[in-house]
Design brief:
The structure is a homodimer of 476-residue chains.
Chain A lengths: L3 H9 L1 H12 L11 H18 L2 E6 L6 E6 L7 E7 L19 E3 L2 E3 L7 H18 L5 E7 L9 H7 L8 E4 L11 E6 L1 E10 L5 E2 H4 L6 H10 L22 H10 L3 H7 L13 H4 L5 E10 L8 E2 L2 E10 L5 H15 L5 E10 L2 E2 L5 H14 L4 E5 L4 H10 L3 E4 L14 E3 H21 L6 H7 L6
Parallel strand pairs in A: 3-6, 3-7, 7-17, 8-16
Antiparallel strand pairs in A: 1-2, 2-6, 4-5, 5-18, 8-15, 8-17, 9-13, 9-14, 10-12, 11-13
Helix pairs in contact in A: 1-4, 1-14, 2-4, 4-14, 5-13, 12-14
């Protein structure tokens, strides 16, 4: 099946696609805020109806104990390969709202960009594939390959319910490769494929002091302040050079060859670029590594937030009862999130002064992931990029985590193609997130090309029929 | 003038006094929350009307750029001494509200205690004197001495506008001694006079990192996190033993004689008692000093609060843009708050890593204060306590600051009698603040006795007439 008619359809329907994406972005489907649960469900229903509408089949809103998973497939290309397309329709909170130029859930076009929470991460990127599928289905009533789409609503909170669902529904999800667009390119004309993701682990450290708030005059100097104790614990987790001091932290970190590091130096962003993208005055971190290496092949411990005592306007002379810090470990091969969590809990317990109590909660362990750059599914993406963006991709490592990549590898035994369409300045997870609209349209073309090429490059799955039956009986 | 009729009146009007105090406590006159400004003004008007109603004269609500000051006097006792009674009608916020058993601004009697924000600090204590004055005025239409009352609405935020008003209205406020009840006794039957107050200085340290919130996966390890940098700055302000490490901090701290320290050991609370009152498992702080000494003759640096990044429910993998800590220095003779502020600003600027920016704001400098234990006004308080509580007071140092004490000393040249009626477990500045009602009634008796005795023990002021005229022309 040649992609020409699909490409033509995509070209003539850009404004329709854009207004549909804006509709999708209007749902404040924030997974980390329980009060948004109804919005998340409404967003899932909208997405499912949309997939049905464009001609996908077996559309299901699979309930979980958390947010629902939206599934759809089209498996009529007998003896053709099957690609599992993953995306997530949940987003981060819009807060701090005051820093947005336009409200996060009022999609707004400014210049070449569409501004909204989720515009790039990940609704916009997910939607590129949906529109590519629509372009085939509308023009040919068929797809060049078999496709299964799985769009979750909990990526930003650790894919808590998707990961076990994948493990329990291996047959239903059987495919030859997974395709995810939730990463970024190097620059507008320079596509990139992410072949490595850091793993992660979230942790909360809580320090408790007095049983009740105390007057800081009456008791100041005689009582260990929990805010101070927490600061001392946090401060002790790095040395002056920026190394993590948690004992055993670097034990299992894989050392990479000079050849790999030279490749990274050639293809990856420069220190100057990372500093600029980070809107900071200078870089920081572990000596002996470039900033790109520090964010990809080296692990990190980052503070996401801290709070304790009186931090509102005005003054309140108190010794607080407690203080809490939230932090994320970013882990690399061959670190094990569970082991790091254990080391961390033990270490904090050991260094907590006896005059206060501490508690560590760890959650969302995610294994680091690596993808073979030479797998046919990955090379097909290179071809598709060349068609869609006019350039072959570079292969980049990514500092973040997409929990599902590891699950696809471990549970389904398939590689994941991380074909990103975001840009470094898309401000994902930050105020004024945007998606570059030229990338939106080129990404749809790229996806159209990918589906066409995969028909030739991927080995066809022989068990489509069986999977088809299993799709009716999701084990959630 | 014998106090017997006033005492009799006070005894028979206890339930009336109590219900009036509850009315007073219902105003959420929180000075540190700008949104409470109208409540603060309503509380001032209620108090002024009340003073008028009981027979005080020259009642004024003196406007300031902040909260109004309520003034009233009664100066018809020719050739008798004048006592300046100070109190504050502003209170701290009720937050955290969830920790209150009954709402902070719904005064509630439980057992022998009246629970409400401000019950002890300071509305309840202030009201003891008001009711003592009423007891005389209702029964004798006169007072044994001349009295000036000045009740401010900004004590909890540093008495910003009262202090300059005192300096500008020295003649109007002329008196022989000042009387303040805003401190605590040692135990229900053991009255105490505070003869020393620590000074203070508030500070806010803000650390700014990236210009926008960053994805902690993408940038974690390459950017100095402002929460981490703030924690490192805060952690570096104490050594492991609990000494403050700010260079020069202890330079001007007065060393006390063995005799004075022995007196303190005899009269002051034990370590065990302070640990119990603080609801902690163990004490902490500067080696070589008892907990009582650490909170009175030794300075301290206490963290009041900290905030930065995402600290709400759920997770958000960000590198925050900024983090702020609020802290209070508690200072002792002969430390100068302005000098400490300068040392602190310079020190933080020096230790801030170059990868982030820091800013220090200092506010509310308060000089430490000392009162002569042998002044007749102080000894009169001993007599009054004996009459009201059946015991002579011990002389205690206090760890907190009442900014006005120093101003009375410096601007008016008069000693301040700190005749406290609070108890160590009154939970001032904390949830479930209370006032012990037996203390309320005994304190009114004590004030009645004080006014009667002061007529004999204090030297009469010869300039009452002139002050009377000046009271009409407040320079606010």
């Amino acid at each position: 099946m040649e992609p020409s008619r699909a490409l033509q359809y995509a070209r003539t329907n850009r404004s329709k696609f854009l207004s549909e994406l804006k509709e999708f972005l209007r749902f404040p489907s924030v997974s980390s805020q329980p009060e948004r649960a109804a919005d998340v469900r409404r967003c899932a229903r909208w997405l499912a109806r949309h997939l049905q509408h464009i001609g996908l089949e077996r559309v299901r809103i699979i309930p979980t104990r958390g947010n629902p998973i939206v599934y759809a497939s089209r498996q009529r290309a007998r003896n053709r390969p099957t690609v599992l397309i993953y995306g997530h329709y949940d987003v981060l909170p819009g807060e701090p709202l005051s820093q947005w130029h336009t409200p996060p859930f009022t999609p707004t076009i400014r210049g070449p960009d569409l501004h909204a929470r989720g515009a790039a991460d990940d609704k916009g990127q997910l939607f590129c594939h949906v529109k590519a599928l629509e372009s085939y289905l509308h023009t040919s009533r068929a797809l060049p390959i078999n496709v299964k789409c799985i769009f979750e609503g909990e990526e930003e909170i650790g894919s808590t319910h998707l990961l076990p669902l994948i493990a329990r529904n291996k047959d239903a999800l059987r495919a030859d490769a997974a395709l995810i667009s939730d990463t970024k390119m190097l620059a507008p004309g320079r596509p990139a494929i992410s072949y490595a993701q850091r793993g992660g682990l979230r942790a909360e450290v809580e320090v408790r002091g007095p049983g009740q708030e105390l007057h800081s005059g009456t008791f100041g100097g005689a009582v260990l302040n929990p805010v101070q104790a927490l600061c001392e614990i946090i401060a002790s987790l790095h040395d002056e050079q920026g190394r993590v001091t948690l004992p055993g932290f670097y034990d299992d970190v894989r050392e990479w060859s000079e050849k790999e590091r030279a490749y990274m130096a050639r293809t990856g962003p420069s220190d100057e670029k990372i500093v600029r993208d980070a809107t900071v005055g200078q870089g920081w971190g572990e000596p002996g590594y470039t900033l790109y290496e520090r964010t990809t092949i080296r692990p990190a411990l980052t503070l996401n937030g801290i709070a304790g005592g009186h931090y509102g306007p005005g003054v309140k002379g108190v010794i607080p009862t407690r203080a809490v810090a939230k932090l994320s470990f970013r882990l690399v091969p061959d670190q094990d999130p569970e082991r790091i969590g254990k080391l961390f809990r033990e270490h904090v317990a050991r260094i907590t002064p006896s005059a206060v109590e501490s508690q560590v909660r760890t959650l969302s362990p995610i294994q680091p992931a690596l993808v073979d750059r030479d797998h046919p599914a990955v090379r097909t993406a290179g071809f598709a990029y060349k068609k869609g963006f006019g350039a072959f991709p570079v292969f980049l490592r990514s500092g973040g985590s997409i929990p599902v990549v590891n699950a696809f590898q471990e549970a389904l035994g398939i590689p994941t193609v991380l074909m990103g369409f975001g840009l470094p300045d898309d401000r994902i997870h930050a105020p004024n997130e945007k998606f570059h609209l030229p990338n939106f349209y080129r990404a749809i073309d790229t996806s159209i090309w990918y589906l066409a090429a995969a028909a030739r490059t991927l080995r066809g799955s022989s068990r489509v029929g069986r999977a088809d039956r299993l799709e009716r009986e999701w084990s959630a």
